[in-house]
Each structure stands twice: as structure tokens, then as C-alpha cells.
Amino acid sequence: MDRSTAIIVATKGRPQELRNLLDALAEQTVRPDLIVVSACDEADIIPMTGEPTNLRVLFGSPGSSAQRNRALTEVRGKCKIIVFFDDDFVPSRFWIEQVHELFTAQSDVVCATGEVLSDGAVNGGLDWTEGRSIVDKRDESGKRDIIDCEVRNDQPPYGCNMAFRATSIEHISFDERLVLYGWLEDRDFSARAGARMVWTDALWGVHLGTMRARSSGRRFGYSQLVNPWYLVHKGTMTSQEALQTMLFAVVKNAIESMRPNSTIDRRGRLKGNIIAIKDLVLGRWAPEKASEL
Q1: In principle, which of 32, 115, 265, 283 could form an S-S bond with 201, CB 3.0–4.6 Å?
Q2: Cα–Cα–Cα angle for 214, 215, 219, nearest 5°?
Q3: pTM of the predicted model, to two decimals?
Q4: Residue 258 gets which letter from DSSP?
């Protein structure tokens, strides 16, 4: 199998996190052939001395879906595997090597996502040093044997770390109606790729969940309810899955609003939830409206 790999990273307002990720990618046991950073302006990038020859930097309008689509245009036809990493993801140094072995061993797999050892998006964020320490500790045990690794088909890929066979997504783009943070864009995109998508502990890393430069609580809260409902209408999410996702968000935000912390704007998210509920009831909802709040 051709081992060519392209990595896509959409970033905005987090230059240090991006630089940390690029440094980690330079330590991979199998180096990526192409890294495409899709940014919004020069402030998103820390200048590098001796910029890697495999690095491309693109600039354009913000929004994770739009940024990832610009990068896809750059990599199509140039690789066999396309990997998406969030700018605040800390990958195992075996990540790329292992995903190639997985795709070679299981020819029916078109998408793989790895084990997230710790997710700062759930608990308010982790710093790079802490995340790197967690990954290094797991890496010390060495890479997993693909034959013995756990593989499950019961959950969709997680956008902070997901890999696709390039042929499975050559005619697919991210939905740019899912504006700003693009809540559930990974779910929608992978559903349209079809075939077999897996979670595996042969790949691992830490999602720092950096709060800096994320959408406001109210905007994100609106997307938490409207985006899943939109995906039901598209056919990339069942109504049961959407309702469970929406209910969980509202309950979580309501409970956490009574004991707010400084890292996650639960009250803002709850306000966005309430606006979304009104729009859903009145039939005037649209995922793009999140950017207007």
C-alpha cells in the first residue's frame, strides 16, 4: 500500500497550540507527506525557522467546515490517507504508522478514529504539558499490535482525530451551513463517506479542549440543538440520536449553570439552547443563525 499521508489542521486564534502540534508531528515514527494548515490570517501562525518542506499554509474565511474544505482542495489526488487533527490534539508518536497498518490489515475500513486518553473539552481544558505527559506515558509501552487491538463499530469518529481513505471522500465536502465551530460536522461528513468506520485503541492521543478562540457560549448553545435537528433533515443522523444529543446538552448546561466555572460558559450555552428551542418551535431555525447571535 502507498503510505502517502496528508494531515489537515484547521486553526484560528491558537498559534501556540498549532506550533505544539506541528512539533509533535515532526516526531512521528512515520512522517506525514503533506501537512496543510488552514488558517484565517497571519496571527494564527507562529513563524518557523526552516519551515518544513511538507507544510502548506492556507488563509481564508473562518469556520471549521470552510477551513477544512479549503484544505481538502489542496490535498485531493496527492495522498492515500487524509487525517484530520484539531490544533489542540496531542497525537501518539505512532499515530500515522498505526493508521497505515490498520488500513492495510482491514481493507473494508474507510474511516478510523482513535482513543482519546483525556478530553479537555469535557472538563474545561488541559494544558500542553499535561496532555503531552499523558500521551508519552502511553507511548512508553510501545505501539499496539494491529491484530490484537480493540476495534469497535458502535460510535462515530471524533473530529479531533480521524483518518479517511482518500478515495472514500474524494467527492465529499464539509457542510458549510454548520458555521463557526461546526458542531457535529464530523458526524455529518463521516456519515456521507459510508461503509465501515471504526474506533480503535491502536491509535491514541489527548484532546486538550483549549477554550481560547472558541465560539461564544450562546452561539455554541444554539448549534447544540439546531445542528442535530438539521442533520435529521439531511438524513445523516436519526431523530432518536438527535433528541438524545439535544436533551443531554440542555440538561448538562442547566445543571452546570447553577455552579458555573471560568472555563465553560454554561449559562451562555443555556441561553443559546433557549433561543434554539424557540426557533425550532416556530419553524424559523437555521444552523447559520448561530453566527448572528
Answers
A1: 115
A2: 160
A3: 0.92
A4: T
